[in-house]
Amino acid sequence: MRNPSKTTKNRSLSKFLGRRRQTRLLSERPILSKNFDFLKQNNGTISSSYMEAGIVKCLFSSYTTKRTAFAFGPTFDLAYVNMIKNFNEKYEGHGKAI
């Protein structure tokens, strides 16, 4: 039960803040990274998805070499860099990481 004499508004239930959170989390963000040489060298594809908490998941998969890697980050650029780092760590012992 809410206090009827309360004069301040609950900010978590505000329409303005809810709408702002929804547009910032679910809106399409521009891709800032221009270095996609990694994809060409490894003959693979990349996909990204935005989680509810504003986290980006970056997933790499190659059908020719059967290698995969994924990483998370607050932006696509950081997730992409983390994914390349994880890929190199995972496959450095398997010979040359194409």
In short:
The protein has 98 residues and is α+β, with helices and mostly antiparallel strands.
General description of the model:
With 98 residues, the protein is an alpha+beta fold. Helix content is 35%, strand content 18%. It has a domain of 65 residues: Double Stranded RNA Binding Domain (2-Layer Sandwich). It is rod-shaped and about 70 Å long. Strands 1-2-3 form a three-stranded antiparallel sheet, with helices on one face. It starts with 14 loop residues before the first helix and ends in a 7-residue tail after the last helix.
Question: Could you tell me how far the N terminus lies from the C terminus, measured between alpha carbons in angstroms?
Answer: 63 Å
In round numbers, the mean pLDDT is 77
The rounded Rg comes to 20 Å
Low-confidence stretches: none
Strand content: 15-25%
The number of helical elements comes to: 3
Largest sheet: 3 strands, antiparallel
Please give the number of β-strands: 3
CATH class descriptor name of the domain at 34-98 = Alpha Beta
Helix content: 25-40%
CATH topology of the domain at 34-98: Double Stranded RNA Binding Domain
CATH architecture of the domain at 34-98: 2-Layer Sandwich
Shape: rod-shaped
Element-by-element helix/strand order = HHEEEH
Structural class: alpha+beta
Q: Order the strands across the largest sheet as they lie in space.
A: 1-2-3
What secondary-structure arrangement, pairings included, does this model have?
Layout: H1 15-26, H2 37-42, E1 45-50, E2 56-61, E3 68-73, H3 76-91
Antiparallel strand pairs: 1-2, 2-3
